[in-house]
Request: fold
Amino acid sequence: MSAPIYNRVALIGLGLIASSMAHAMRADGLAGEIVGHAKSDETRKVALQIGICDRVYATAAEAVQGADLVVLAVPVGAMAAIAAEIGPHLAPGCTVTDVGSVKQAVIAAVAPFIPQGVHFIPGHPMAGTEYSGPRAGFATLYKNRWWLLTPDEATDAEALARLRSLLQAMGAKVDTMDAAHHDLVLAVVSHTPHLIAYTMVGVADHLAQVSNSEVIQYSATGFRDFTRIAASDPTMWRDVFLTNKEAVLDILGRFTEELFVLQRAIRMGDGDQLFDYFTRTRAIRRGIIEAGQDTSAPDFGRVPAVAVDAKA
Amino acid sequence: MSAPIYNRVALIGLGLIASSMAHAMRADGLAGEIVGHAKSDETRKVALQIGICDRVYATAAEAVQGADLVVLAVPVGAMAAIAAEIGPHLAPGCTVTDVGSVKQAVIAAVAPFIPQGVHFIPGHPMAGTEYSGPRAGFATLYKNRWWLLTPDEATDAEALARLRSLLQAMGAKVDTMDAAHHDLVLAVVSHTPHLIAYTMVGVADHLAQVSNSEVIQYSATGFRDFTRIAASDPTMWRDVFLTNKEAVLDILGRFTEELFVLQRAIRMGDGDQLFDYFTRTRAIRRGIIEAGQDTSAPDFGRVPAVAVDAKA
Reply:
């Protein structure tokens, strides 16, 4: 066990992200105690049952009292109301961070309510699964995953170092960047791909000539990877698109232009153009494997969904 | 070991698909002997070295002589020339199948060259990895994967049953459908998703404000799944889009319409529309897991790319 890095951590919102943080902090003694708040009675009950919180509170205002770290783990659209509620109850010197997938909108929503002497350090753990809720959390969710922080020039260096040490102790790789740049990078690597995946799954669902059972049965070659993405939490993603609107619309515009170029090549039968394009995209994939962000094992290193005995 | 189902199997083209068939047939004694043809000297040499062929031939015409099963495992664009070459050399009563990802174009290219008394049964194994070449093959590639056959009303029932028994013995699940319907289903579950993935990877590559190293570093949330798809064999995919043009353009048109609806909802800030859309797509994902086409383990059941020791 390490020495606790914070004496009392208050988790506001008790879904996959907060629950995984709690498991990770418990596993390594990183927090003296962990308290929590969730809107729903049921979620608070589950949090006590599975032991991710020592105490739970029906209001966020109560939960943050006396905490030296407050983690805002609610959907981006709920951040402003929570910040307004907790602002007057934050302990002097405490650190407030969040786990939202967009940063400029969260800063605009939260920063005005942070009192003098409290450190607000926006954050974004780039980890998750297609499951949500307190029972979906597990201690190793952040191991070897990036956790981006977007401090500004006024951020207290000591508070930043302490938060960084907590995240690293949970297994995360921590990087800092400007909030606006964060939102553009995420629009490219995450937000727009999600919207596209949602759309493709929707098209399949609407197509009368192809039954849903056929789509499901023959999904292994391509479509399956889209559906995993498209199964993510609807509330979180609604808020992402509403709050990172400009960057997503920019990338979507570029995507559509580029798609039309390829669509035209198909219509005109321009095989050389297609071949050249498909060859270039291979290089990026190689880079991802070399950067250790995915396995090079065939088929993603998946274990076959239904095991079939190998015969001699 | 089972009794051989065919006495001599001729593999025309020795890439991932043919090589995996050879490994699977060898593992279970399904073929008396396996001969092969590949255009390149190097590929033929490798095929002998790794033992997937008993003999190799510099021409397809030589390779098919005396075979009771001929497997056309070349890119779809190369099928017509190969069929013209082998037609006069096919043994009476033999079965010719192919492994192309589109079926109507292959039938149009191959059927005219199939002599009376030879059975042409088009096929499509829905399995693969992002790797290609003879060394990429492995015996379990087809285990629990679909292998679609598109016979017509003139297809010999006995020849069909024999081919089916071979594919099932290699672990595949076999289904039959009409060739036109096959091409539409595949446009939805595979071809269009691939084109979209290629496009998104291309957009990321072109974006000057975001470096490629950032795209690679932060790819874990969404983009990574696109790059795997986009790393597939460029020749194969060029031919797919050129030969399944109509169905792909149809699905692409629907996709763009639908994407514009979501794009407008983002621009107008219509959160309810986004939320409803994202909620509906979750159901399809659940269906895929229930159909055993993917694992329900978080993050696809991936093993972390770089192992990090769990601390006590």
Notes: Confidence is low (pLDDT under 50) at residues 298-312 of chain B. Chain B has two domains: 6-177, 181-293. The domain at 181-293 of chain B is CATH 1.10.3660.10 (6-phosphogluconate dehydrogenase C-terminal fold). Chain B touches chain A through 121 residues (CB under 8 Å).
